[in-house]
């Protein structure tokens, strides 16, 4: 024991007090990048930005695409898409900077919103519906064209990849009252790259109504869902059909939502009413382009 203590004191004696404090800073660039890259993967987007501002060395490290790709897929809880057009840091910012589609259009009609989550559309065919009945949905998937009206709407030419879903509360389009409490809810889903496209930013891409109909009777709830037709029979999708596990109880008027790997659904219980007016809206990337945004709106009659 005595020999070991003398040896440790001998080593410490060769290091001056000043050099002991400066050593960590003088050897900073010798740190392993792989270690810091691994640490960065545990940080939120905000923390990554703060870390990048501390030094040029950290800025170079944090701005690596692999870090933001990991953060984006981790926070959205989706698998990696086949390809993306924009940088991952830009995709992360557009997904988590608090923006939503009504901030770019119709701000005067917007009341409130909530983020539901993200899901993947692997095929170019999507099913939109107001019904959460599994039997009806599984039968509807065989439609070969977009339905102009009815419970279901089948969309072709969907842009595949990551989609982000929000639930929007907006004033009814025929109401100009500033004190309107909001009589329309909208399931709003968009491709993750939508806000970064010039066609969207300059207003050239607009929503078009592809289906509409009325439910002219008292309805207990306003529901809407978007499914990737390719994954309708997946075990993960069945969670949406288990309605009792996620919708609110009859006296609960708060909106509820469910997102799975390849589908999203919303449900809001309603008080006594005279029915609903339902619309399916789509936005395409140009006149004959891919569908890049979908809305299912439901307005009280």
Draw up the topology in text.
Layout: H1 2-13, H2 17-26, H3 33-40, H4 45-52, H5 56-62, H6 65-76, H7 88-96, H8 101-104, E1 110-121, E2 126-129, H9 134-140, E3 152-155, E4 161-170, E5 184-191, H10 198-201, E6 207-215, E7 221-228, H11 238-241, E8 256-260, E9 263-269, E10 276-284, E11 291-300
Helix pairs in contact: 4-5, 6-7
Q: Runs with pLDDT <50, length 5+?
A: 1-24, 144-149
Write down the overall mean pLDDT.
84
SS elements, strand count: 11
Helix content: 25-40%
Protein name: Probable F-box protein At3g61730
GO biological process, one term: reproductive system development
Organism: Rhodamnia argentea
Pfam families: F-box-like
Task: Provide an overview of this structure.
This protein has helices at residues 2-13, 17-26, 33-40, 45-52, 56-62, 65-76, 88-96, 101-104, 134-140, 198-201, 238-241, and strands at 110-121, 126-129, 152-155, 161-170, 184-191, 207-215, 221-228, 256-260, 263-269, 276-284, 291-300. The strands form 2 sheets. A 6-stranded antiparallel sheet has the order 1-4-5-11-10-6. Strands 3-2-7-9-8 form a 5-stranded antiparallel sheet, with no helix packed on it. α4 packs antiparallel against α5 (56-62) and α6 (65-76) packs parallel to α7. The chain has 301 residues and is α+β, with helices and mostly antiparallel strands. The model is unreliable at 1-24 and 144-149 (pLDDT under 50). The protein contains 11 helices and 11 strands.
